[in-house]
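Z., the sequence and structure:
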Amino acid sequence: MTRAFDTQLEAIGQVLAGPWRKPVNMLLKQSYDNHLSLHDDAMAQKLGFKAGPIEGPTHYSQFAPLGVAIWGDRFLAEGCLSAHYRNMVMEGEEVRAFMEREPGDDHAKIWATKRDGTEVLKGTASVGLSAPPTALDLRLNELPPLEQPVILSDLKVGQKTARIPVRMDANQHMGALYPFSLNEKLTAITENSPWYSGSDNPWGRAIIPVEMISVLLNHVARQDGLKMKGPAIGLFADQEISLIKGPLFVGEDYEIEREVVALSGSRRTESYWMRTRVYHPGSSEVIATMLLNHATLKDSYARYAEEKAALYPAA
């Protein structure tokens, strides 16, 4: 059987580190609500950013070899990556992933940095349902409620979507939100694996890379039917991808449902936290989940100040 990864790793004391990589921005042509996204250079610069950033879950691929080195194939079947995105990465910048196993058998700290030491993300990795609370479990418990929502004024915690069918074939174009296929991603992914495109693995089928699970679960986001003001531009601020009875397979039919589990905000953003649950069609057993903090930029919504004044005249 082929190995999952041939990535050269380095032990630095108790820390396991991957190689320096230059992730590729594959979202330059991403669009939603009939406009380009933050990942377009011109749009990003209009909003005060240097250029269009790399999408956050792109960095998750660099942690896959580290997780497999610690937990073996189990990490690809019941592993979890949970992280807060700290700073954006632009195409051409180098990133390195680190994992430090904590006391106990089932969890570790993770972080990624740029060459100059800038922290890209930090969080936790774990395996199995008995692992301690994840980085985002803890973060959710500390969130203050969103006050005076405008863009998200029609959204409520507890709202759920109907089930939506999803599937990822190797050559399937994933739509306007993700204008590429899995095979196209595999030509640019930071850590490729023969298990992503072939059957010579413990499951006898090609498995979906962890970063592409984000694509699988998000490419139909416009079918949610949830009411939000727009057009407005958002970014991923926190993300957790958890396999319970995985892996997820290329060419397999799944169903997903989403639930708004929290609303939060900052000086520049209004955020909704969405938990996506993955099922086999017709089943009630959850086989994977994703928690995602969508941070919507207030300045990107043209009517923000006007509508805030109307909604909260005494503020």
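Helices lie at 41-46, 64-71, 74-78, 135-141, 182-186, 210-218, 304-311. The chain has one domain: 10-311.

Let me know what you think.
H.
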